UniProtKB/TrEMBL annotation:
Keyword list, A-Z: DNA recombination, DNA-binding, Transposable element, Transposition
Comp. bias regions, Basic and acidic residues: 1-16
Name under which the protein is recorded: Mutator family transposase
Disordered, as annotated region: 1-20
Membrane among keywords: no
Annotated function: Required for the transposition of the insertion element.
Tagged with keyword Transcription: no
Classification of source organism: Bacteria, Bacillati, Actinomycetota, Actinomycetes, Jatrophihabitantales
């Protein structure tokens, strides 16, 4: 994720007649409940973290159901050769903080979730945040302090180095690329040649 928002083209936007996934009534209900319980919107135990955890865990449960081919507690699963086998704890770093997930397991060990893949410790976008901070000239120590302050996650210097090293080669290649001898200059229609410095003509 960068500091600039990518605004979708009109053709990429949802149709105007399509209702939003979370309607205003549900959002108001969640916010009212959080406020009455003294829960903040952001932070490690904030509303956004709790909603993200709940949605991800529900999606993982649905993935397991699809993988096994039957619902939880369904008698059709008896004698199927594979069944649910509890959960495994997993810490996932997101842009709103660290989330402790319960990832379902199966007895055969063949379940390979796609929403949060095996071995994955960060949601897409977290690496982009590290790279954006690195591009601004922050040191590994500065990046680590920033992530701790903003997202309440303690990221190891080794992780930051691995992420930045992954783009370092590409960045160095871009910095040392040969420059074109001539660059065209596009002027707004109101500009005239008299306004252009002689060195740029």
């Amino acid at each position: 994720m960068t500091d600039t928002e990518i605004v979708p083209r009109k053709s990429d936007r949802l149709p105007a007649d399509r209702p939003p996934l979370v309607d205003a009534e549900l959002a108001d209900e969640l916010l009212a409940r959080a406020q009455s319980d003294g829960v903040e919107l952001l932070g490690p135990d904030g509303l956004l973290s709790q909603v993200t955890k709940a949605v991800l865990e529900r999606a993982l449960t649905e993935e397991m159901t699809q993988h096994l081919g039957y619902e939880k507690h369904d008698p059709a699963g008896r004698g199927s050769g594979n069944s649910r086998n509890g959960v495994t704890g997993k810490r996932l770093l997101t842009e709103i903080g660290g989330i402790d997930l319960e990832v379902p397991r199966d007895r055969a060990g063949s379940f390979s979730p796609q929403i949060v893949r095996k071995g994955q410790t960060r949601l897409d976008g977290f690496n982009d945040r590290i790279i954006a901070l690195y591009a601004r000239g922050l040191t590994t120590r500065d990046i680590r302090a920033h992530l701790r302050e903003m997202y309440d996650v303690d990221v190891s210097p080794d992780l930051i180095s691995r992420v930045t090293d992954a783009v370092l080669e590409e960045l160095q290649e871009w910095q040392s690329r040969p420059l074109d001898r001539v660059y065209p200059v596009v002027l707004p229609p109101s500009a005239s040649c008299r306004e252009v410095p002689p060195s740029m003509r």
